[in-house]
Amino acid sequence: MDISLDSIQSYIQDFHLSELTASPVPEVILGLGGLLAFLMAFRYMRTGGGLAYRLKTFLGVIGGLVMMVTVYAMQAHATGEWTVLSLALMGVTGFALFFRPFRTINLAVILAIFAAVGLYLFLGTLTDPAWEFLTDDVIRAVIALAAAVIIFTAMRFVQELITFVNKIVNAWPVLLILGLLCMGEAVAIYMDTNILELLDEYVLNNL
After folding, report:
1. What are phi and psi of 180, to 5 degrees?
2. pLDDT 10s digits, 125-155
3. Cis peptide, bond prior to residue 101, ω within 30 of zero
4. Contact of 111 with 151, CB cutoff 8 Å
5. Are 33 and 46 in contact (CB under 8 A)?
6. The pTM is what?
7. CA 194, 195, 196: angle at the middle one, nearest 5?
8. Rounded to 5 degrees, what are φ and ψ at 4?
9. CA–CA separation, 140 vs 26, rounded Å?
10. What is the pLDDT of residues 5-52, one digit of tens each?
């Protein structure tokens, strides 16, 4: 099996989001994401942190991103194989995993700084004589600072909203339940059903 840098780059270039929608790929992603969320919450409940927890958190950022991209792919390609609740479960769990490390980080400040630095560097690369005045260091700095202030102001509300939701879904009891639901839903979907249908068939009908 070729695992060289060229082969990896070639695979990335040829990869298409539709590949994430073919069963059993979404079910595997949902199940593994649920397992990761469960282990992360269980570890935090037991020890409150540690190296193993931080490693799971790092993996959670990657897993959460994959889960959210998978939800987007299934929506974009309109597979119709999953219910809205199944997609929502994957999306919420992916959101929780991805944003867990950023609960105490000021995202608005970070984005503003990155935008300012990027804009400052970009203006320095302009070669068109019509925009030559923008390459002056002072003017570049003023424009970059103004952009940073605008982006910071615009992102404050978004950050507060994300932080509020993030604190709810990342409370360890909630994350623990999300993990269990994801694993159960992954198995149910693989069996051509879902948790709600199983609950209705085997629980509610027997009450």
Report:
1. -65, -40
2. 777 777 777 778 888 889 889 988 888 888 7
3. no
4. yes
5. no
6. 0.70
7. 95
8. -70, 165
9. 46
10. 555 455 444 556 777 777 788 999 999 999 999 988 888 787 766 777
